[in-house]
Amino acid sequence: MKSIFFSIILIVMTSGCQPVSENATNGEKTSEGKLFFDYDAIDYYFNDINEHASHELYDNHNTSADDSIRTNVILGFTPTDMNDLAFIDKLETFGYSKSSINPSAFKEINDLFSERTPGDAMLSACIYIYRDILIFKKNGKVVGTAKICFACGDSQIKGTTAYTGMFGQNGDYERLAKIVRPKH
Predict the structure, then answer these.
(1) How far apart are CA 113 and CA 135, in angstroms?
(2) Is residue 124 predicted with pLDDT exceeding 50?
(3) Every domain of the chain and the residues it spans
């Protein structure tokens, strides 16, 4: 009976262990899990819109098609999926400035944008303003998007089959901010 009990404990303890590559590349597992995106470039868009201007977006969201898209990008759920990417071409007209993330930061980006084991859930009670948008590309084609609200600690991540629900734990937003906004 004792040997069966110890065998069960041994099986349970080792069943969750998985070999992990220290040099995980996109699409492979990291120490936490599957990477969100297989990419070779990241475009970063930043909009320094203030709270007052974001409230005006609500008031004007039906003025034109572009105002509706702008409101849904900054405050809403655009993109809804990977077929909803027309907004990218309009980001700079919506007040976003564009830059590229240096490939030397990809290892840390991979660490942030990978599956996690569940931890304590974070809740916030603010109005999300997505000032930061990451567009992940592979061979010039968009493979994923991540809209970030650093003030609230919220994100909308599209284009992955990985579980993204644990993104933002354990200082992830602070680490990401240091990569994309080093001067702030």
Answers:
(1) 13
(2) yes
(3) 34-180
Distance CA 169, CA 180 (A): 18
CA angle, corner 123, sides to 81 and 33, nearest 5?
60
Mean of the pLDDT values across residues 5-27? 34
Q: Which helix (H) or strand (E) holds 43?
A: strand 41-46
Question: Which residue type does 148 have?
Answer: I
- Token duo for residue 126: 């603010």
Give the max Cα distance, the chain. 74
Residues 6+ apart with CB under 8 A from 177: 150, 184
Q: Give the rounded percent of residues in the chain with a pLDDT score beyond 90.
A: 57
pTM: 0.79
Q: N- to C-terminal Cα distance for the chain? A: 62
Q: What is the pLDDT of residues 110-120, one digit of tens each?
A: 999 999 877 65
Range name among 68-72, 85-89, 142-146 with the lowest pLDDT average: 68-72
Q: How far is residue 91's CA from residue 61's CA, in Å, rounded to a whole number?
A: 16
Query: How large is the angle between the packed helices 65-74 and 51-60, nearest 10 degrees?
Result: 140
DSSP H helical segments within 18-146, as ranges?
A: 51-60, 65-74, 106-112
